[in-house]
Amino acid sequence: MLGALSSFFLTPKVIKLCQVFGWVDQPSKRKIHSRPIARAGGIAMFISFWLIIIIMYLADSQSLTFVQEKIWGIDKNLLGVFVGASILFFSGLWDDIKGLKPGVKIIFQIFGGLALVLFGIKIHWFANPLGGLNIELGWWTYLFVPLWIVLIVNVVNWLDGADGLATGVGFIATLVLAFLSLAPYINQTSTAILALVLAGALLGFLIFNFNPAKIFMGDSGSQFLGFMLATFAIVSGGKLFTAALVLGLPILDAFWVIARRILNKKTPWTADRMHLHHRFLDAGFSQRQTVLVMYAISAIFGMIALTTKTAGKLQAMFGLILLMVAIATFLFSMKFIRSKKDAR
How far is Cα 54 from Cα 141, in angstroms, rounded to an integer? Predict the structure, then answer.
């Protein structure tokens, strides 16, 4: 609740700040908005989240304890999250204001992932979906964690293409990860607190980001949000299958878009209008209809993730792939029918 209130009152200030300094997203053929819109909404999200966390930590540091080891009197893991989140936020903010090349952004994303590992946040093992012994990662965690951060950060960044889409899906994902952290067999209250505070900050921001949007989260917001979601999935124990299910549709969409761009001899980060939400819009859906459908899918698979174990989540992932194929076929058919009508 505090995160929501903080974000709700801070976001209008950020909108005015963006307008004063010209930090606005201009309309273009690739984009779907028709007027300049403030684009550095990540400022409100980042400040709201960390302001509440710092207040809570000063009031009761035990409630946000991940490990016993401390650096400068601060929980080592929590400090690592702050360092990594700051790297992603400030590099994203620089991209919102001045622009950064895709390769440079990826380097900062890798640094953010390495910060987590260096501060002790690692993936030690995966649950074996076929049963039997867990799959130990060992030193591979130093490679896997940064790659996981890069993947989720860019998934959220690409998802942020329709008013309120990334914010709403992120809100659902943080709630699911919070509830999972509170489950008796996991019992990670500190992770749940972080997730719930972020969910509040997203909710307060969504009021201004939902269609018609008054502000976009920008790269400062999408990188920060993607980093935090990726971190929640690994801190104090792996919840990767759960995060992958909630974000399954945009993850599959990201892999499909990358593959298509490579097959067309383009770089994977070439901007276009071929993401799933663009296909919904091209098929005749409104922005609100598009985001509500994707909210519903994320929520449904989030519930599945909360109520099944690893093997069940793996089965649900196969189901999600089939759903993705069905949606793509439906949208292609709708676009074809619509183009035929327009041609008459």
Answer: 29
| Tokens at 210, concatenated | 């939902």
Give the number of domains in the chain.
1
Q: Which of 87, 192, 64 is nearest to 149 (CA)?
A: 87
How crowded is the C-beta side of 213, counted as CA atoms within 13 Å? 32
Q: What's the pTM?
A: 0.90
Q: Is 72 exposed, middle or buried (0-12, 13-18, 19+ CB in 10 A)?
A: exposed
What is the tens place of the pLDDT at every residue in 133-150? 566 667 777 888 899 999
Ramachandran category for residue 134: left, alpha or beta (phi over 0 → left; psi -120 to 50 → alpha): beta
Helical ranges in the chain per DSSP H: 2-21, 42-59, 76-97, 102-118, 141-159, 165-182, 189-209, 218-232, 240-246, 248-263, 276-282, 287-307, 310-343
The answer for residues whose C-beta is within 8 angstroms of residue 139's C-beta and 6 or more apart is none
31 Ramachandran zone, left/alpha/beta (phi>0; psi -120 to 50): beta
Six token digits for residue 99: 């622009």
Q: What 3-state DSSP class applies to 55?
A: helix
**Which own/partner pairs from 56-60 qualify as long-range (CB within 8 Å, at least 24 positions apart)?**
56/193, 56/197
Contact 224, 46 (CB under 8 A): yes
pLDDT tens for each residue of 225-260? 999 999 998 875 557 777 888 888 888 888 888 887
CA-to-CA separations, 30 to 34, 105, 212, 232, 239, in angstroms, rounded: 11, 21, 18, 32, 35
Q: Is 335 in contact with 282 (CB distance < 8 Å)?
A: yes
Counting Cα atoms < 13 Å in the Cβ hemisphere of 59 gives 7
Give SS3 for 24.
Answer: strand
Structural domain range at position 293: 2-343
